[in-house]
Design a protein that fits this description.
The chain has 460 residues and is an alpha/beta fold. The protein has a single domain, classed as TIM Barrel (Alpha-Beta Barrel), CATH 3.20.20.140. The protein has helices spanning 75-84, 102-113, 132-143, 163-176, 187-199, 208-211, 214-231, 243-254, 265-269, 295-305, 345-354, 361-375, and strands spanning 3-11, 16-24, 27-32, 42-45, 50-53, 55-60, 65-66, 69-70, 87-94, 120-126, 148-152, 179-183, 234-237, 258-264, 311-313, 393-397, 402-403, 422-423, 426-432, 435-439, 442-443. The strands form four sheets. Strands 1, 2, 3, 4, 5, 16, 19, 20 and 21 form a nine-stranded mixed β-sheet that branches. The chain is globular. The relative contact order is 0.18. The structure holds zinc ion. Residues 59, 61, 93, 315 line the site of zinc ion.
């Protein structure tokens, strides 16, 4: 059925104008003034509202066996939460354990999404070991539509790879034109400092940050930059949290290293004092890299404004406070990592970024949609509003006022890290390839409508 969105203010990364959008089939057919509705078309009045391209979260975990447990969401709850929050495409990390087979894992992850997801999705392929068999399988996986790898410089023994494996992964990526996304922390320093803190009886959530301070992350970035420069690969630093790490990435970029930087909505809005909350509540705010000193927030916002930081993601990894986070009650190193915010990324960026003037509407679209699409080979099918693009649209109501609460969230989780936070706007209508998935802020989508997005490599 055709869909006509009338009188909305269309916002892309570089344009802003009032017009009607006619969607037919799965795509945007026409954009213009006073378009008339074809027979049987649904008409949505977007007067007084913004119309954004569907947002893309470049870094989420949905199926995630981690630290002896499993993340709580499945593709039904995660895609529902994403859509209610205005996110129409997810890029999930496929994270095999070191002993797992790459191809079998890729198929396992695909199977978790297929037939369930209400929004579109694709994967970064985790390279958690590198040997001849894995290399062969990675080539196959790239042929099946994956153009990004993920490596962990941290989590040695679980997902982490050694330097030989890192070097060879980057070489392969260079050859295939694949971008390598990387978790940058020095694992040896994390392990040593954690051991010292625990031995000294410093076991609470507040000691998670001191176990992996900013220099540990900056060292990880520097390390990756050296390997990237020597291999000529293209890389993407996931969840960059602090000024020291950003400085390392920018120094490398100035030398010609092909590096993109992602930060998270959590680092922009929360700081390490949250992980210091009493009675173990700080565990809700444990993730890696950890929440930092508040001074870093201004640096990250500025980085978004200046185009030094390319994207804002969530690293969504939902673990319940009860039973799951509690596994680390006597040892912060056993607290499952993650501050779930898949559902709230856009509303938080809008309320705490656009409203106070830290970023403008174009930057919001750019960092949460357009740049993601460009970096990961989805543009211009995704990431902008133009004829021929997928009809993934967010009609955003800037007059809405509400509060975030565990009582109303769609994520499958027993807490909200943003409980009671005010929201000054929300997605009113959201479409996925021309189908209405959210209406008046409520999920009305269809599980299984989401498609796997095959992507072609392009970083040569
Ligand atoms: Zn992650």
């Amino acid at each position: 059925m055709a869909l006509l969105i009338k009188h909305g203010e269309i916002i892309t990364a570089n344009e802003r104008y009032v017009a009607d959008i006619l969607c037919e089939g799965e795509s945007i057919r026409r954009i213009g003034r006073n378009l008339s509705a074809p027979q049987g078309a649904e008409v949505i009045d977007a007067r007084g509202k913004y119309v954004f391209p569907g947002f893309i979260d470049p870094h989420v975990h949905i199926y995630l066996p981690f630290m002896g447990t499993y993340a709580k969401d499945d593709y039904c709850s995660a895609s529902r939460a994403a859509l209610v929050g205005g996110t129409t495409t997810l890029i999930e990390m496929c994270c095999p354990a070191r002993q797992d087979d790459a191809l079998a894992s890729f198929e396992l992850w695909q199977g978790k999404a297929a037939g369930k997801s209400a929004c579109d999705y694709t994967f970064h392929m985790g390279v958690t070991k590198f040997d001849a068999r894995t290399e062969k399988q990675l080539r196959q996986i790239v042929r099946r539509g994956i153009n990004s790898f993920k490596v962990f410089l941290a989590y040695k023994g679980a997902f982490g790879i050694d330097d030989t494996e890192l070097y060879r992964t980057l070489q392969l990526a260079r050859e295939l034109g694949v971008i390598v996304t990387a978790h940058c922390e020095n694992e040896t320093l994390v392990a040593e400092r954690s051991r010292e803190l625990i031995a000294a009886g410093k076991t609470g959530p507040r000691y998670h940050e001191p176990s992996r301070p900013v220099l540990v992350e900056a060292e990880g970035v520097h390390h990756l930059m050296t390997f990237t420069e020597l291999t000529g690969a293209a890389v993407y630093i996931v969840h960059l949290s602090c000024q020291e790490a950003l400085a390392q990435a920018l120094a490398a970029r100035a030398r010609g290293v092909r590096v993109s930087v992602e930060t998270l909505i959590q680092y922009l809005t929360l700081d390490k004092s949250y992980a210091e909350k009493p009675r173990f509540e700080g565990a809700k705010y444990v993730m890696s890299p950890p929440l930092r000193d508040k001074r870093n927030q201004a640096v990250l916002w500025q980085g978004l404004r200046d185009g030094l930081v390319q994207t804002v993601a969530t690293d969504h990894a939902p673990f319940d406070f009860r039973k799951q986070k509690e596994m680390g009650r006597n040892d912060f190193t056993r607290i499952p990592n993650g501050i779930p915010s898949l559902e709230e990324r856009i509303n938080l960026l809008y309320t705490y970024g656009v409203k106070p003037g830290k970023i403008n509407l174009h930057t919001l679209v750019n960092v949460a949609s357009t740049q993601v699409a460009k970096i990961f080979g989805l543009f211009p099918r995704k990431g902008t509003i133009q004829p021929g693009a997928d009809a993934d649209l967010v009609v955003y109501d800037p007059e809405y006022r509400g509060k975030i609460s565990v009582q109303t969230q769609q994520m499958n989780l027993d807490y909200s890290a943003f409980e009671g936070w005010k929201i000054a706007g929300r997605p009113d209508v959201v479409t996925v390839r021309g189908q209405v998935a959210v209406r008046e802020g409520k999920f009305v989508g269809r599980y299984g409508h989401g498609q796997f997005l095959a992507r072609r490599p392009g970083y040569y």
